[in-house]
Amino acid sequence: MGRAGYIAVTMFRKILALFITAAAVLSAFASDSGRYADISHDQLKTAIAAGAVTIIDVNGSDSYTEGHIPGALNFSAVKADLAARLPANKDALIVAYCGGPQCTAYRQAYDAAVALGYTNVKHYSGGISGWEAKGEKTDKG
Q1: Confidence band, pLDDT 50/70/90 cuts, at residue 22
Q2: What is the pTM of this model?
Q3: If you classify domain 41-133 with CATH, what class do you get?
Q4: Tens digit of pLDDT for each residue in 24-52?
Q5: 40 to 11, 21, 68, 99, 114: CA distances (angstroms)
Q6: Closest residue by Cα to residue 126 from 114, 138, 117, 116
Q7: Beta carbons within 8 Å of 83's beta carbon, 6+ residues apart
Q8: Residue ranges of domains in the chain
Q9: What is the pLDDT of residues 71-97, one digit of tens each?
Q10: Residue 77 vs residues 12, 65, 111, 129, 135: alpha-carbon distances, Å
Q11: CB 56 within 8 Å of CB 83
């Protein structure tokens, strides 16, 4: 094989390795994101209006004080006794959120609720930034 053939094979191997790596990353992302069920903004608003949701803010106490979705629990303050703060009905809707679409801190509360046996746990991917961007009011303190 000449030099040109060697270069072509080397380039092919590098492209193939890059493709395999990208496929593995995308597969891991897809399986991870599928693990956390989302709730839309409108669905969350409907559940809040019906009084049929427990919301958990996972942004930390400083952010919680600055503004949170009305009625949300401050995960930092309640995680030690989360079981006592959640409804007795394990099928009740529990929604966890954090800063916005790129934030993954919500997983702490989501996973904690699932570990406690809750079966209807959702993630509000808009987070507090999405909530505010929609013109929704927040509670302070």
Answers
A1: very low
A2: 0.77
A3: alpha beta
A4: 444 444 434 568 999 999 999 999 999 99
A5: 44, 32, 17, 15, 20
A6: 138
A7: 116
A8: 1-35, 41-133
A9: 999 999 999 999 999 999 999 999 999
A10: 54, 11, 17, 21, 27
A11: no
